[in-house]
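Q: I have 161 residues here and want to know how they pack in 3D. Can you give me a structure?
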Amino acid sequence: MNKVIEADFLLRGTNADFSWPRSIGVSGRKERRRILIVDNDPNTTHLVKVLLERTGRYLVVEENDAAKAHQSARNFRPDLILLDVVMPETGGGEVAARIEADPELHNTPIVFLTGLVTRAEVKSGLRVQGHPFLAKPVSIPELINAIEQHLPVCAACHVSL
Protein backbone atom coordinates (compact mmCIF):
# COMPACT_ATOMS: atom_id res chain seq x y z
CA MET A 1 0.00 0.00 0.00
CA ASN A 2 2.75 2.48 0.88
CA LYS A 3 4.47 1.97 -2.48
CA VAL A 4 1.26 2.93 -4.31
CA ILE A 5 0.86 6.08 -2.24
CA GLU A 6 4.54 6.93 -2.60
CA ALA A 7 4.29 6.53 -6.36
CA ASP A 8 1.28 8.84 -6.43
CA PHE A 9 3.19 11.51 -4.54
CA LEU A 10 6.55 11.20 -6.26
CA LEU A 11 6.03 10.30 -9.89
CA ARG A 12 3.27 12.73 -10.78
CA GLY A 13 5.48 15.75 -10.07
CA THR A 14 7.46 15.52 -13.28
CA ASN A 15 5.06 17.81 -15.16
CA ALA A 16 4.41 20.30 -12.35
CA ASP A 17 5.71 23.84 -12.58
CA PHE A 18 7.95 23.88 -9.56
CA SER A 19 10.71 25.92 -8.06
CA TRP A 20 12.09 25.80 -4.54
CA PRO A 21 11.09 29.13 -3.01
CA ARG A 22 13.57 30.82 -0.70
CA SER A 23 12.90 30.88 3.02
CA ILE A 24 16.02 32.43 4.48
CA GLY A 25 15.68 34.59 7.54
CA VAL A 26 17.69 37.70 8.29
CA SER A 27 20.21 35.64 10.22
CA GLY A 28 20.78 33.42 7.16
CA ARG A 29 19.18 30.38 8.79
CA LYS A 30 16.35 28.57 7.12
CA GLU A 31 13.03 28.94 8.89
CA ARG A 32 10.76 25.90 9.21
CA ARG A 33 7.06 26.54 8.73
CA ARG A 34 4.44 24.63 10.74
CA ILE A 35 2.03 22.47 8.73
CA LEU A 36 -0.88 20.46 10.14
CA ILE A 37 -2.14 17.70 7.86
CA VAL A 38 -5.56 16.24 8.61
CA ASP A 39 -6.57 13.06 6.80
CA ASN A 40 -8.15 9.86 8.06
CA ASP A 41 -5.54 7.78 6.20
CA PRO A 42 -2.45 7.49 8.44
CA ASN A 43 -0.32 6.18 5.55
CA THR A 44 -1.04 9.34 3.56
CA THR A 45 -0.38 11.75 6.41
CA HIS A 46 2.82 9.99 7.41
CA LEU A 47 4.18 9.93 3.86
CA VAL A 48 3.40 13.63 3.36
CA LYS A 49 4.98 14.43 6.74
CA VAL A 50 8.19 12.56 5.89
CA LEU A 51 8.47 14.04 2.39
CA LEU A 52 7.76 17.61 3.50
CA GLU A 53 10.09 17.42 6.49
CA ARG A 54 12.82 15.92 4.31
CA THR A 55 12.95 19.27 2.48
CA GLY A 56 14.14 20.88 5.72
CA ARG A 57 11.57 23.65 5.31
CA TYR A 58 8.60 22.33 7.29
CA LEU A 59 7.65 20.96 10.67
CA VAL A 60 4.60 18.74 10.14
CA VAL A 61 2.07 17.33 12.60
CA GLU A 62 -0.33 14.60 11.49
CA GLU A 63 -3.93 14.29 12.70
CA ASN A 64 -5.95 11.26 11.58
CA ASP A 65 -9.08 11.96 13.61
CA ALA A 66 -11.12 14.82 12.15
CA ALA A 67 -12.97 15.25 15.44
CA LYS A 68 -9.63 16.13 17.09
CA ALA A 69 -8.35 18.35 14.27
CA HIS A 70 -9.53 21.65 15.79
CA GLN A 71 -7.85 20.90 19.12
CA SER A 72 -4.68 19.76 17.34
CA ALA A 73 -4.65 23.09 15.48
CA ARG A 74 -5.11 25.00 18.75
CA ASN A 75 -2.24 23.09 20.36
CA PHE A 76 0.17 23.21 17.38
CA ARG A 77 -0.62 26.68 15.97
CA PRO A 78 0.15 25.78 12.35
CA ASP A 79 1.09 28.30 9.69
CA LEU A 80 -1.10 26.34 7.26
CA ILE A 81 -3.51 23.38 7.40
CA LEU A 82 -3.80 20.67 4.74
CA LEU A 83 -7.28 19.25 5.14
CA ASP A 84 -8.93 16.25 3.49
CA VAL A 85 -12.51 16.94 2.45
CA VAL A 86 -14.03 13.47 2.84
CA MET A 87 -13.48 11.81 6.21
CA PRO A 88 -15.71 9.54 8.27
CA GLU A 89 -18.06 11.17 10.80
CA THR A 90 -16.62 14.72 10.61
CA GLY A 91 -15.92 16.09 7.14
CA GLY A 92 -13.27 18.62 6.19
CA GLY A 93 -15.90 21.32 5.68
CA GLU A 94 -17.03 21.00 9.29
CA VAL A 95 -13.42 21.04 10.54
CA ALA A 96 -12.72 24.17 8.46
CA ALA A 97 -15.82 25.88 9.87
CA ARG A 98 -14.66 25.20 13.44
CA ILE A 99 -11.21 26.59 12.69
CA GLU A 100 -12.65 29.68 10.97
CA ALA A 101 -14.92 30.32 13.98
CA ASP A 102 -11.97 30.20 16.40
CA PRO A 103 -10.63 33.73 16.97
CA GLU A 104 -7.11 32.36 17.52
CA LEU A 105 -7.09 30.29 14.31
CA HIS A 106 -9.44 32.05 11.89
CA ASN A 107 -6.57 33.54 9.87
CA THR A 108 -4.81 30.19 9.41
CA PRO A 109 -4.80 29.30 5.70
CA ILE A 110 -6.48 26.00 4.79
CA VAL A 111 -5.77 24.05 1.62
CA PHE A 112 -8.24 21.25 0.96
CA LEU A 113 -7.11 17.93 -0.48
CA THR A 114 -9.77 15.91 -2.26
CA GLY A 115 -10.29 13.13 -4.72
CA LEU A 116 -13.67 14.63 -5.64
CA VAL A 117 -12.33 17.10 -8.19
CA THR A 118 -10.25 16.96 -11.33
CA ARG A 119 -6.96 18.72 -11.98
CA ALA A 120 -8.78 20.89 -14.55
CA GLU A 121 -11.19 22.09 -11.84
CA VAL A 122 -8.23 22.92 -9.61
CA LYS A 123 -6.56 24.94 -12.38
CA SER A 124 -9.81 26.80 -13.10
CA GLY A 125 -9.53 28.56 -9.74
CA LEU A 126 -12.59 27.02 -8.11
CA ARG A 127 -12.56 27.10 -4.33
CA VAL A 128 -14.14 24.88 -1.67
CA GLN A 129 -15.79 27.04 1.02
CA GLY A 130 -13.56 29.88 -0.14
CA HIS A 131 -10.37 27.81 0.26
CA PRO A 132 -8.03 26.54 -2.44
CA PHE A 133 -7.89 22.82 -3.04
CA LEU A 134 -5.71 20.20 -4.66
CA ALA A 135 -6.86 17.05 -6.41
CA LYS A 136 -5.65 13.76 -4.95
CA PRO A 137 -3.30 12.15 -5.63
CA VAL A 138 -1.08 15.19 -5.42
CA SER A 139 2.62 15.36 -6.24
CA ILE A 140 4.99 16.71 -3.61
CA PRO A 141 6.22 19.56 -5.87
CA GLU A 142 2.58 20.53 -6.54
CA LEU A 143 1.84 20.38 -2.81
CA ILE A 144 4.88 22.49 -1.91
CA ASN A 145 3.91 25.10 -4.51
CA ALA A 146 0.41 25.30 -3.00
CA ILE A 147 1.80 25.54 0.53
CA GLU A 148 4.22 28.32 -0.41
CA GLN A 149 1.55 30.19 -2.36
CA HIS A 150 -0.84 30.25 0.61
CA LEU A 151 1.53 30.60 3.56
CA PRO A 152 1.43 33.98 5.24
CA VAL A 153 4.65 35.99 5.07
CA CYS A 154 7.03 34.69 7.71
CA ALA A 155 7.87 37.61 9.98
CA ALA A 156 9.03 35.37 12.81
CA CYS A 157 8.64 31.68 12.00
CA HIS A 158 8.10 29.33 14.91
CA VAL A 159 11.02 26.93 14.55
CA SER A 160 14.57 27.58 13.37
CA LEU A 161 16.94 24.93 12.11
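Q: Anything worth noting?
A: DSSP finds six helices and six strands in the chain. The longest strand covers residues 31-38.
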